[in-house]
Design a protein that fits this description.
Distance between the termini of chain C: 52 Å
Strand order of the largest sheet of chain A: 1-2
Number of helices of chain A: 7
Shape of chain A: flat
Number of domains of chain A: 1
Number of helices of chain C: 5
Distance between the termini of chain A: 33 Å
Structural class of chain A: mainly alpha
Largest interface: A-B, 40 and 39 residues
Largest sheet of chain C: 7 strands, antiparallel
Shape of chain C: globular
Low-confidence stretches of chain A: 1-5
Order of helices and strands of chain C: HEEEEEEHHEEEHH
Strand order of the largest sheet of chain C: 2-1-3-4-5-6-7
Number of domains of chain C: 1
Largest sheet of chain A: 2 strands, antiparallel
Helix content of chain C: 25-40%
Number of strands of chain C: 9
Number of strands of chain A: 2
Order of helices and strands of chain A: HHHHHHEEH
Chains: A mainly alpha (217), B mainly alpha (193), C alpha+beta (229)
Oligomer: heterotrimer
Strand content of chain A: under 5%
Helix content of chain A: 55-70%
Low-confidence stretches of chain C: 1-6
Structural class of chain C: alpha+beta
Chain lengths: 217, 193, 229
């Protein structure tokens, strides 16, 4: 199994943002964080916390990749991820008690985010520390971007504000269901629908470009 | 010290604050396994059992960590215990009932990264439940998870006979159905209050 | 996991990896814990202080007390459980303004945690702040912000009966606008259960704490405040 030569090391970073976006394309890792995306601030905090854990655990897994035998790799990855999640939990508590209270136990639930374990297994254990860092950063920021899409829509429609700043006049009747869990399900379903549509259109365009070539050859 | 009554705890965990439809926990198996009614029921049963055992273990660990004053080890010890519990449950079922083991198949190891189990352990610790309350909480959560799973499976089986637009097919559709189910479950709010 | 029949030579890297990684992780966790511990404690003390001063208007200093053996109050120590603590507030002259008491109970959706201020001199609840609630946004969460509801707690009658062992009148929530007695709470239209929950939480907590506090005012008065419990 030969390693693919990267197009450039920035590709490691960029791919996580859009092409292989963890939430919209890979549909990974939404599970533990959807409950706290009912506002822009919470979504941002959750996304950044996950990125923090992802980057650091990717780095540590990559550093130790020749040291960890295959049989115990999943156990050690989980140990490493749990460590960084505990670290970020205490850091958030130290920085802002309000955010910690808003996110609650869901910070600790980052440890079962399939995205982090997935990246450690699929990428960090097979590449150098530098590339693992970039990969973690890209995936993490892509994840944060997806969470912001979710949290932003939910906050705008459900509270009439964005990041706490009131957007509409006082007469605006907020669509409360958006802040509630069912709103989260609907919003994510609609975003996925949008992405599927974009993918389908792109596929049609690619097929349309190929067909004339085949006809002429 | 939490003095919620056992009945309130059970109602809360299974209906009012259903783990899947209110907390978004356990979505991965929810989206993946809810295609067929038979597998959904079995998965629900396995999760119930693992939840009960993990809940008791988490309670024990929490008391131990309090005694040795090492609260920072909470997350690591919970996740290690949950993973081991799943391994043990798998070996136990394999020995006791090979038929059941074959029926559950791949689902058991999937439960390890099931956020619902870890979420259960963390929530019950935050609420300060005693042992009896923990067990009832676990039973309620498992029952609620199974209920949501079975409902979703029934709906999806029926949907297979319907025409569905391509862009919605798959995860997007399941999520929207889950949204409607979640809305329906909101009707339970205030039950037992 | 391991292939059967592994000899001990091959399992050494396994143990080395697990133990090595375990030690690195342990070191990381403990250092962050030790580094952030004081900051977190400071933040929590500051948040508590702010809440206490908010429910006890006029208080500028605070001293926490724990219910110790034989149900008698003593100054709180750092490792006392927070649920057994009450917080006395003192004004600039050092005299007791009142006692802030934490309480919690089941609301409509999930547990509600509150802090309320008790003035023993006038036997009134003078302030109430919701610390944590997950009530329905737009309806139940009005218990946190609705000014009419908050006004209920500026002078809520919690006078004790003659024997000092229980409240003379139970705190009850009534329909919005129909409050007649000073021990009633005007509920919020559309959030009856959340309002009733607040009443129940305050009622249970007062029945438990107020007789004890009233009986031991001397101990609480003696606290000079300005010392963080």
């Amino acid at each position: 199994m030969a390693e693919q030569q990267p197009i450039s090391s920035t590709d490691d970073f960029i791919k996580g943002l859009w092409r292989e976006n963890p939430v919209f394309v890979q549909v990974l890792g939404m599970c533990p964080v959807l409950a706290v995306t009912n506002s822009g601030v919470n979504a941002l905090a959750m996304g950044l916390a996950t990125t923090f854990v992802l980057v650091l655990s990717n780095a540590l897994v990559s550093m130790l990749r020749n040291f960890i035998p295959k049989q115990v790799r999943i156990a050690t990855y989980i140990l490493i991820i749990a460590t960084f999640v505990t670290v970020v939990d205490y850091l958030i508590q130290a920085v802002s008690l309000d955010i910690h209270r808003a996110l609650g136990a869901f910070i600790s639930l980052i440890v079962v985010n399939c995205l982090i374990l997935g990246r450690a297994e699929a990428f960090a254990s097979k590449h150098t520390v530098g590339r693992a860092l970039l990969d973690g950063l890209g995936m993490g920021l892509g994840f944060t971007f997806a969470l912001l899409c979710l949290g932003g829509v939910r906050e705008i429609l459900g509270s009439g504000s964005l990041f706490g700043l009131s957007l509409f006049a006082a007469g605006f009747q907020p669509w409360i269901v958006m802040i509630l869990p069912s709103g989260g399900f609907f919003t994510l379903g609609l975003w996925l629908l949008l992405f599927n549509r974009l993918k389908a259109q792109r596929q049609q365009r690619l097929d349309g470009q190929l067909a004339p070539q085949e006809a002429s050859s | 010290m939490n003095d919620d009554s056992l009945w309130t705890i059970f109602l809360n965990a299974s209906l009012v604050n259903n783990f899947v439809l209110a907390y978004f926990l356990g979505i991965c198996p929810f989206l993946g396994v809810s295609g067929k009614l038979a597998t959904a029921t079995r998965m629900g049963g396995a999760v119930c059992f693992v939840m009960l055992v993990s809940s008791v273990c988490a309670y024990g660990i929490h008391q131990l960590l309090l005694a040795i004053n090492a609260p920072y080890l909470q997350l690591i010890s919970y996740i290690v215990v949950i993973a081991s519990t799943v391994q043990l449950v798998e070996m136990f079922i394999k020995k006791m009932s090979p038929v059941l083991f074959r029926a559950l198949g791949i689902f058991l190891p999937l439960i390890t990264t099931n956020c619902a189990i870890l979420g259960l352990a963390l929530f019950q610790t935050n609420k300060g439940y005693n042992l009896m309350q923990c067990m009832v909480y676990a039973l309620g959560a498992g029952a609620g998870f199974t209920l949501a799973l079975v409902l979703m499976a029934g709906i999806r089986e029926k949907l297979e006979l319907a025409t569905v637009p391509d862009v919605v097919r798959g995860t997007a559709l399941t999520l929207m159905i889950a949204g409607i189910l979640s809305l329906a479950f909101m009707g339970f709010a205030g039950l037992g209050a | 996991m391991q292939t059967p029949g592994n000899n001990s030579a091959a399992s050494w890297p396994l143990y080395r990896a697990l133990v090595g990684v375990g030690m690195v992780c342990g070191l990381l966790i403990v250092s962050v814990f030790v580094l952030t511990g004081p900051v977190i404690a400071r933040n929590e003390a500051a948040a508590l202080q702010e809440a206490v001063f908010q429910v006890l208007p006029g208080a500028v200093a605070r001293q926490s007390f724990t219910l110790g053996e034989q149900n008698s109050f003593r100054p709180a120590r750092a490792d006392d459980p927070p649920q057994q603590m009450v917080h006395a507030g003192y004004d600039a002259a050092g005299s007791l303004v009142g006692v802030a008491i934490p309480a919690q109970g089941m609301g409509y959706q999930d547990t509600i945690r509150v802090l309320y201020g008790y003035d023993p001199a006038r036997q009134l609840i003078v302030g109430m702040q919701v610390l944590a609630s997950k009530e329905t946004p737009g309806l139940g969460d009005k218990i946190e912000k609705d000014p009419t509801f908050i006004a209920n707690f500026k002078a809520l009658d919690v006078s004790l009966a003659e024997d000092g062992k229980a409240l003379r009148h139970a705190i009850t929530a009534v329909k919005s606008g129909s409050k007649v007695s000073p021990w009633e709470i005007d509920g919020i239209t559309g959030a009856t259960i959340s309002s009733k929950a607040i009443a129940r939480i305050l009622e249970q907590s007062s029945q438990q704490w107020l007789p004890l506090i009233y009986a031991q005012l001397a101990v609480l008065n003696a606290g000079s405040g300005g010392i963080d419990g």
